[in-house]
UniProtKB/TrEMBL annotation:
Listed Pfam families: DUF1850 (PF08905)
Species of the source: Selenomonas ruminis
Taxonomy, superkingdom: Bacteria
Protein name: DUF1850 domain-containing protein
Length: 121
């Protein structure tokens, strides 16, 4: 898929410990070489979920906790499918159910290639 600076996408999954939905909103960063995590939306506190002041701007919206303005940079993203986690990507209005394509435990690497034209591997 074509990925240019500013291309936004979301990763949604069921947290493996908390068993609640999580949504992470990211974009290809301005240099077109890596990713920036803008926000995370989740329903419960626990291991692996942001909650500390300084990680972003925290707010509650209905049943969800939202951490905005996180601005965390990643050169690549390594995700892993899991039993019941329903790992799904949302990009340009399309839904990619990663969990249906790969068996549990499979690592899935997401990166911007050196030409700045790739997103999923």
């Amino acid at each position: 898929m074509r990925a240019v600076p500013g291309t936004e996408f979301s990763i949604r999954f069921i947290h493996s410990v908390q068993k609640t939905p999580v949504e992470e909103n990211l974009a290809v960063d301005a240099d077109g070489r890596s990713f920036v995590l803008h926000s995370t939306k989740y329903q419960s506190f626990g291991v692996g979920l942001p909650f500390l002041e300084g990680e972003g701007d925290f707010r509650q919206e209905g049943d969800y906790y939202i951490m905005d303005n996180m601005e965390r940079h990643f050169p690549a993203l390594t995700l892993r499918t899991g039993v019941g986690t329903k790992l799904t990507l949302y990009l340009e209005g399309r839904e990619y159910r990663v969990y249906e394509s790969y068996p549990p435990g499979t690592p899935v690497e997401i990166y911007v290639n050196s030409l700045g034209k790739g997103l999923l591997s």
